[in-house]
Amino acid sequence: QVQLVESGGGLVQAGGSLRLSCAASGSTFSSYAMGWFRQAPGKEREFVAAISRFGRSTNYAESVKGRFTISRDNAKNTVSLQMNSLKPEDTAVYYCAAGPSRSEVTIATAVTSWGQGTQVTVSS
Is 38 left (phi over 0), alpha (psi -120 to 50) or beta? Predict the structure, then answer.
């Protein structure tokens, strides 16, 4: 299985931007579709964005469409999430995820590998 390590979280004011990165190791990165999930205190983990194995297709949760962009670099074994126009409701722990296909990596129970998470806090 692939091992995932996130970085790039932090504290930002509303309207600001952050870029999260996830480094993968231990397996062939291009074998996996990749995604990002988030979990706010007291809430279930929710899907944010997904990208296909070679980056040709992406999909997003409605709440982040037009503000967040997922990308991947298979040569560097990394996947990133560019977050713009951040809102206080984006505050959560963000998790990198790997799965067998883009459609499956949108479903938490179908994810095969998780990162440890990185905290994003957006102040109003």
Answer: beta
